[in-house]
Amino acid sequence: MPSSIPLPELLAPAGNREKLETAVAYGADAVYLGGTAFNLRAKAQGFSPDRLLEALDFAHAHGVKVYYCLNILAWEKHLPGVMAQLEQLGSLPVDALIIADPGIVRLAQKITPHIPIHLSTQANTSNSASAMFWKDMGVSRINLARELGASAIRAIAQSVKSELELELFVHGAMCMAISGRCLLSAHLNQRSANQGLCTHPCRFDYKTVAIRVDERTRPGEGLWEITQDEEYSRILSAQDLCLVKYLPWFIKNRITSLKIEGRMKTSAYLCQVVDAYRTALDDAASKNFRPGTYVDCLSQAATRPLSSGFFCPRRQIFFTPQSEPESIILARIIRRVNADSWIIAVKNPWDVTGPVAIMAPGLKRPVLGPDLFRVEKETGEGVTQAHPGLNYVLRSDHPDLAPHLFLQTYRANRT
C-alpha cells in the first residue's frame, strides 16, 4: 500500500462507558455515542450530560474523536428537546454531530455552527448529486447508503473527490429496510425504529402457515411460495455485514472512515471486532494483509452469517455459525491495583485452574498458564471457579495485561 495514501479512520460504537473504554483500548480512532434521547439507539444506556463530559475527556486524552448522534427522524414534538440538547452540546468539545433529519441539520447550523455535521446513513445518500446537496447544506461528511455496491461507491468517491468526507459501514447488523427506514417495529409493537425504539421484528421467529403468491399476468404459476415444517424460523433476518477482506479497496479509494455497527452489542463483542479491523488496517499499511486471520477472529463474535452485503456484485458468505465459538470471553480487566494485582469483571463461568489467553491488541493472544496467575475474591480468598456478574482480583505481573483488555479461553490451535 503506497505510504502516501492515509489509512481510513476506524469508527467504533460506544453505547456506554465500558464500551467506550473497550473501543479505545483496542485501537479505534473515533467513537460514536448518544445521549439518553434523540438518537437511533434509545435503548442503549447513552450518556447523561455529566457522563458525556467525562467520556469526552477520556477519549480525547487518548487521541480518540467523539461523534454525537442526534439521528432520529424527528416529529414536531421532538424539536424543543432537540434544540435544548444542541444548546447543551454547543459548550462541549464534541468533534462532530451525526444527523439524519434535514430539520435537525438546519437547527444545528443555527445553534452549533462550530460543530461539524456528519450525515447519517438514515438519510440514504446514494448518489453524488445528493452528496453535494448535503455539502451545500453545511454537511462535511456523508455516511453513504448501505445498499450501495463497490462500483457505485467508487463513482461517488471519484465525483466528490476532496469536497466531502465519505464514511461507510463495514461490519455489523444489516437492516432489511432501505438504510434502516423500517416500519415493522412501529406496526407490530408501536415502537418506531426511526425514533430509536426498534424492537427488531426482522429477528423474530416466524412460522409460515400458508403463503403462495401469484402475479396477475402469470396466474397459476406460483411466483413465490414458502414451505415450512413445524419449527419457527427467522425468515426476515438479514446476514451481518463483514467487509474486512476488502479494506485495501477502501484505502485505495480514499474512503475517510470505516464504521462498525453495534452500540447495543456487548463490550466482549466490541473488543474482538475493533481488534480485528484495527489489526487489518495496520497490516494493510505494512503490506502484511491476512484476511483469513481477521475472519477467524470475527467468527468468534458472530451470531449470524457474515457476508459481503451489497458490496460485491454477488453476495459472498464468509462464515456461518453452526456451533458455539471455540473461545469464550471470560473476564474484563477494570483497573490496576498495584504491580501484580488487577480488578476484573467476570463475564462467563470460568474454571480458573486452566490456561487463559490475554486478548492483547493486534490480535495477540499471549497465554497465562495456571502457574502464572491467581484469581481471588476481593477479600483475598483464592477461588477455582469465578462466576459471571462478580468482580475478582487477578494476581499476575504479565507484561501484556492492561486496563480495559479482556481474557478468553485458550485455543491451542490458534494460528
Automatic annotation (TrEMBL):
One of its GO terms (biological process) is proteolysis. It comes from Desulfoplanes formicivorans. Keywords: Hydrolase, Protease. One of its GO terms (molecular function) is peptidase activity. This is Peptidase U32. Belongs to the peptidase U32 family. The keyword Protease applies. It comes from the Bacteria.
